[in-house]
Amino acid sequence: MRLLALCGSLRAVSSNSAALQAAALLAPAGVEVVAYGGLAGLPHFNPDLDTDAPPAAVTSLREAVGASDGLLISSPEYAHGVPGALKNALDWLVASLEFHDTPTILVSTSPASIHAPAQLREILTTMSARLVEAAFVTLPLRGRPLDAAAIAADPELASALAGGLARFAAAIAAQPRADR
Ligand SMILES: Cc1cc2nc3c(=O)[nH]c(=O)nc-3n(C[C@H](O)[C@H](O)[C@H](O)COP(=O)(O)O)c2cc1C
Question: 178: pLDDT confidence band, cut at 50, 70 and 90?
Fold first, then answer.
């Protein structure tokens, strides 16, 4: 099973990125978590560019989603909203067949950030993602600059993350994507 990890932060040292890297370390047997690294290279969404031959970076994004059994999204909140870079990537996926019915979970690193997760729920539902709410994970990382190894070594954080991944993998196994 292959899960694609999409981080909404472009920072080099990012808590959301660390959480997703820790997910890769803690993935159950048979589950691979692959980071999507192209967020900063996507052009601004423009329907005029969304032709039969879209920009190469967009094709890569869509292929990465299409090759995945599920999606992990971890994102900061900026000014009570979803970071523009992440919303831009999602906009490129709106009309893409690869995205339809993709099992998706949110990995939140700041329990105090309530607006961006609420908006992501609304956006992803509108895009016909399949949100697996029972597997959503919240890790209290705000003010704790932990890297992936430190998250994976922390019993509480690791347990929360591994538990969410196990529930997510089980939900996907029970109901794979419609195109699988
Ligand atoms: C410009 C800016 C605006 C922010 N606005 C909010 C906000 O509205 N609500 C919130 O909870 N955190 C806000 N934050 C804090 C970030 O969401 C938080 O630092 C996040 O953990 C950073 O994620 P990262 O380490 O993955 O980059 C803001 C940070 C920045 C830089």
Answer: confident
